[in-house]
Write a structure and sequence with these properties.
- The structure is a single chain.
- By secondary structure, this protein is an alpha+beta fold.
- It contains six helices and six strands.
- It has a four-stranded antiparallel sheet with strand order 1-4-2-3, sandwiched between helices.
- The termini are far apart.
């Protein structure tokens, strides 16, 4: 086992705030490869992931699950290796004693774009079905996506988040919210 695969345990790593005192994600994650563990306000493990750019992934998770992103633990590596990253993630999940919901029943909520169609009310479903053509449906979905986007921005602002966040405008017409 190389030095890079001799890893710290999850318990040995310090918790760091997900959002710093200026309302931004910690700067040290920009373009860093590694594994990260996300904890809620009570420091309960919610998700363990890995990325070639931890900062970008953390921003995605913050937008998708803002109520669950309060604390982090992480380990970076110098060279990308999916095998090593998978090993670290698996070891941390095993150490936790149970699979975090973000790696289990809520995996789509953590990993996939936000689909506003899944969040529509019955009235909104009816309105979507009654649109006269695909163009009208796309406009309706875009308006729903913008409302969800506003809700997300309000929730992040209430947390003091100042991070620049831009959703992909082309996906909104499909009722999806994902970062650019």
């Amino acid at each position: 086992m190389s030095a890079e695969t001799t890893l710290p345990t999850l318990a040995s790593l310090a918790y760091i705030p997900y959002i710093d005192s200026n309302g931004n994600l910690p700067a040290e994650f920009q373009a860093k490869i590694g594994v990260y563990a996300i904890f809620d306000r009570e420091q309960i493990l919610k998700f363990v992931g890995f990325s070639r750019d931890i900062s970008l992934s953390l921003k995605q998770h913050l937008v998708r699950q803002p109520q669950s992103c309060y604390w982090l633990k992480y380990h970076t590596i110098d060279r990308p290796s999916r095998t090593i990253l998978d090993q670290i993630r698996a070891a941390w999940i095993t150490e936790n004693g149970n699979i975090p919901t973000g790696n289990d029943i809520d995996a789509a909520k953590w990993n996939d774009p936000i689909d506003v169609k899944l969040l529509m009310t019955e009235e909104e479903r009816s309105q979507l079905e009654n649109q006269i053509n695909e163009s009208a449906q796309a406009k309706f979905l875009k308006s729903l996506a913008r409302r969800m986007e506003d809700k997300i921005f309000a929730e992040l602002a209430a947390r003091g988040v100042n991070e620049e966040i831009h959703f992909n405008p082309k996906l909104k017409e499909s009722g999806l919210l994902d970062l650019k």
